[in-house]
Amino acid sequence: MQYDPIKKSLGTIFNKTPFLRVLFYKLLDLLLLRAWHVKKEIRQWARNIRQTGTLTDNAAGSTHQTVDQPFRTTTRYILDAGSGFGQYSYFLSGLSPFWFVDAVDVKDEQIADCSAFFARIKRKNVNFDIADLTQFSMPDKFDLILSVDVMEHIADDEAVFRNFYDSLTQQGMLLISTPSDQGGSDVHDHDEGESFIDEHVRDGYNILDIQEKLKRAGFLKTEARFTYGIPGKIAWRISMKYPILLLNKTKLFFLILPFYYLFSYPVAFFCNWLDTRMHHQTGTGLIVKAWK
C-alpha cells in the first residue's frame, strides 16, 4: 500500500492557508495514536525540567544538574529527526520561544514545504534542513532528540543510533516511536506477510533488540514500552487503515470522509485514550527512550 500519494493529496488540500495547515496538525494529533503517546512523553520530559530544574534520567532514577532558570526561559536545543509534515516541530517550538528546534528530513519537498509554512507564521525558533540521518551528527548539541516513525524506513539504523548518541548532550534524552515486531504496520493482517506500508524497510522492532542496538551505539540506559495494544489496534483500523485503503481505491472517498469520521471517531477517540492509560504486555508500536 502506497502511503506517500495520500500524504501528498492531503498536503495539497491543507496547504492553502496557515489556518488549514494548523487544522491539519490538530487532526493528525487526534487521529494518530502515536501522537498521543509521543506528546505524553514530551510533556513528562518537560515536567521534569519545570519541577526540578534538572533533566531526569527516568530509567536510572538519577538527575543531572542544569542551570536553575525559569522553565520557559531556559534555552533547550531539540532535534526533530525525520520531521515529515512538521507537526512535532510545531508542537515543540510552541512550548517555549527559547526551545530551538532543528528539523531535518531526507525529502527536499517536505523541507521546502515546512520552511515556507513556518516562515508564513513567523515561527522563528525552528530551522528546517535536508539531511540523511545516517550521516547527520552535531556533537553534544541536543537536549532532546525526537524520532517518530522514522527508523522503520532506514536500513542502516545502527549508524543513525550512533549519530543520535554523538549529538545528545550528557543530560539529553532520545525519544523514538516506531512499529514493533508484534504486528507493526499491520503486517500480520496482510497477505503473504508483507507490510501494510510499502515504504518500510522493516516491519517492526523487537523490544529487546532495539535496546541492544542502542546500547551498542553507546547509550548506557534504555527504557521501552509497547503501544498500540488492543484498544490502539482497534483505533488504528477505524481511524487510519480503512480510510487509507478506501482513499487508495478512489479519491472520491474524500467527499464522504467527514461523514465517516463523524460516526467512527468517537469510538477511535475512546480507544486512543484507553491505550495511553494501559500497560500493554504486547502491542504493535513501541516507545523507546535512551540516555547516555
Radius of gyration: 19 Å
Q: Given this structure, which CATH class is correct?
A: Alpha Beta
Any idea of the CATH topology? Rossmann fold
Q: Strand tally, please? A: 9
Query: Into which percentage range does the β-strand content fall?
Result: 15-25%
Shape: globular
Low-pLDDT residue spans:
54-69, 190-197
Q: Averaging pLDDT over every residue, what do you get?
A: 86
TL;DR?
The protein has 292 residues and is α/β, with parallel strands linked by helices. The protein is built from 9 helices and 9 strands.
Secondary structure layout:
Elements: H1 4-14, H2 18-31, H3 33-52, E1 54-57, E2 62-65, E3 76-81, H4 87-95, E4 99-105, H5 108-120, E5 126-130, E6 142-148, H6 157-167, E7 168-179, H7 207-216, E8 221-227, H8 230-249, H9 253-277, E9 285-291
Parallel strand pairs: 3-4, 3-6, 4-5, 6-7
Antiparallel strand pairs: 1-2, 7-9, 8-9
What does this structure look like?
With 292 residues, the protein is an alpha/beta fold. The protein has one domain: Rossmann fold (3-Layer(aba) Sandwich). 46% of the residues lie in helices and 20% in strands. Strands 5-4-3-6-7-9-8 form a seven-stranded mixed sheet, sandwiched between helices. Strands 1-2 form a two-stranded antiparallel ribbon. α6 links the parallel β6 and β7. It starts with a helix and ends with a strand.
Key features of this structure:
46% helix, seven-stranded mixed β-sheet, two-stranded antiparallel ribbon, Rossmann fold
